[in-house]
Amino acid sequence: MAKLLNLHRAARLVGVTRGALQKKIQDGELDSFDGMIAVEELHRAYPDASLEDNTTLEQVASIKEHAFGRRIMEHTLPDKEVLAARLHELSKELVESKALLQHTRGMLEGVNTLLSEWVMQGGDRSRFAATLKTWLHEQRMHTPPASDAERALMIRDNFLRVMSAQVRVLPSGVDFFVEGSDTLLEAALRAGIPLAYGCSNGSCGMCKARVLSGEVKQVRPHEFLISPAQQALGYALLCSCTAISDLVLEAEVARTPHEVPEQQLSGEVRAMAQPTDEVTVIHIKTPPAERLRFLAGQRAVLTLSGSLAMELPIASCPCEDRHLEFHVRRLHGHHFSDYVFEQLQPGARVSIRGPRGDFVLDAASQRPIVFIAFCTGFAPVKSLMEHAMALDQAESIHLLWIATKESGLYLPGLARAWADALDNFYYEPILVGGDLDATASRQENVIAKTIGPKLRAIPSLTRANVYVAGPGLAVGAMKKILLALAVPEAQVFSDYE
Fold this sequence. Notes:
The protein is α/β, with parallel strands linked by helices. The chain has 4 domains: 4-159, no CATH class; 164-250, Ubiquitin-like (UB roll), CATH 3.10.20; 263-356, Beta Barrel (Elongation Factor Tu (Ef-tu), domain 3); 369-496, Rossmann fold. 38% of the residues lie in helices and 23% in strands. The chain has helices at residues 7-14, 18-26, 39-45, 56-67, 70-76, 80-121, 125-141, 148-163, 184-190, 228-232, 335-342, 378-391, 412-421, 440-450, 452-456, 472-484, and strands spanning 4-6, 36-38, 164-170, 175-179, 208-213, 216-218, 235-237, 241-243, 247-250, 263-276, 279-285, 299-304, 308-313, 323-329, 349-356, 369-374, 397-403, 425-431, 465-470, 492-496.
């Protein structure tokens, strides 16, 4: 029987997205068996895929740094390169042993078949012994070995199993990897999986989940007590445990905004930046016991100086732990905006209420994605983009960032960095004439003339999920143009400033 890999692990081995594998399966270029892919098939589809894991030594260093005290480690573990080499050699031995075991099982099944036939035919023993001897010799001599490339894939898979554990969450069916010193909760959030949690420091018990298979280890202390009866059933706190082996968990995953409760918490302005005169970026840190649980693309109400409040998109990813980022547009005469640009300083206390809104990623979809951001509409798009990168399943991602002047594209370096780092990401900055807050008819004419050709040039537009954010009139005009270009209305999502 060929070794089978699930889609997530197969994509990780050859360095492509799950969406790319799904497309090959749908196009008939790659065979799958109940959602699993054979190593031979994977190598056939990606014969030139790199089998080197460039992050292995860094992962070894991270585990070595955090799993034990430095002093103890230096006396008990070998040099990281020696450790990596030893793991590689053990992986080679494991592959050979598995191949031999698989072949031996096949031979035993063959012997059993011959014995059954001999009993039914009533043959004599000497003739059977001679037949069996000849058959065993042929089996041993004619067993085709796995190719070097296939063996390399299997060796790397074994290596990755040591460096990271794969976790599958039921009943949702989502999965993620746990690497380094991450807890299960940290790894899930980093992968864009919105598991239920509260304090994330072991006090509230909201991240309690049941381990259905595999083994976990507590790596951080917690105050919340799990009853002996629940421990016997396999319950553990995700914020305090990590995975020793591949796991199957029973835990709830928020799929819609309605499944995430509104919260009230406080924070502190840790840093501020003004990339242009028209935008201030605020970085807020919440206390250790207060974490805002939200879905990428949602909003929160910030209250400054006791009474100045404004609802803003959250520009950071939910995986950013206690760090929240907001982009404030310069609106002369608006009390909140004026205070941010003229008086707000690092260290100021902030009240946060949220999350709100339903401008969230369709996490179950593997459609291509098109993001369209007008000016500071880039804030929620940034959050969605980071979530999409964590999910790593979209076939392709296009970002069109639109402004009336160059300063409206206030973080161009970030978008260009995404384009440099991601093979399936395409970034297009667009400058349009006129005012994005002008009348609706003016908006439609400007957008149709300037942006329409850019949209028509996207080959996957009508199959894509399109996310549009920015001033209300501009977003409304863009939605009309998208519908005119035959994008189904159910695939268009919008957020209005």
